[in-house]
Write a structure and sequence with these properties.
Blueprint lengths: L1 H5 L11 H17 L6 H24 L9 H11 L6 H17 L4 H4 L4 H26 L8
Helix pairs in contact: 2-4, 3-4, 3-7, 4-5, 4-7, 5-7
């Protein structure tokens, strides 16, 4: 069960770009949680994913024999959700949030790179959460500076 959750329901097992695959599945899940129009549902999803990530990531890493294996993508789920929280749900915001999260997750600007060096589930999760925070803050600024550009009335 932990392994299945840590691998993003298997999305992290793809042979090429498992982090991007996990982020794409997370984006789809985030979008599905916005459909009912219940504003707190994506935030509740984030809390569940965050708890599931800390519960499953370290054990899956131990099973795979690596500190932060590519197959473990629950951290991408958490980071992708964080990148999109408290933002309007226009298609442009969602796609831009996905791209920004991937950019920050791959480049790991400080302190994300340093957070990645923490041990166990904390290290696996922390750098992606920082990448999600960077993406969210940049999008919050962009949406507020030019709301019409983002399809927001």
């Amino acid at each position: 069960m932990r392994f299945w959750i840590a691998t993003g329901f298997g999305s992290g097992l793809v042979p090429v770009a498992p982090g991007t695959a996990g982020s794409a599945v997370a984006l789809l899940l985030f979008w599905l949680l916005t459909l009912p129009g219940i504003g707190w549902l994506p935030a509740a999803g984030f809390v569940v994913i965050l708890a599931a990530g800390f519960w499953s990531a370290g054990e899956a890493a131990r099973q795979l024999g690596k500190d932060d294996p590519g197959a473990v993508v629950i951290d991408e789920f958490a980071g992708q959700f964080l990148a999109l929280l408290a933002l309007p749900h226009s298609w442009l915001v969602l796609v831009t949030g996905f791209l920004l999260f991937r950019l920050f997750d791959i480049t790991k600007p400080p302190p994300a790179r340093q957070l990645e060096k923490l041990h166990g589930a904390t290290g696996i999760m922390a750098d992606d959460l920082m990448a999600g925070l960077y993406a969210n803050l940049l999008l919050q600024l962009a949406v507020r500076l030019a709301p019409a550009t983002w399809g927001i009335a």
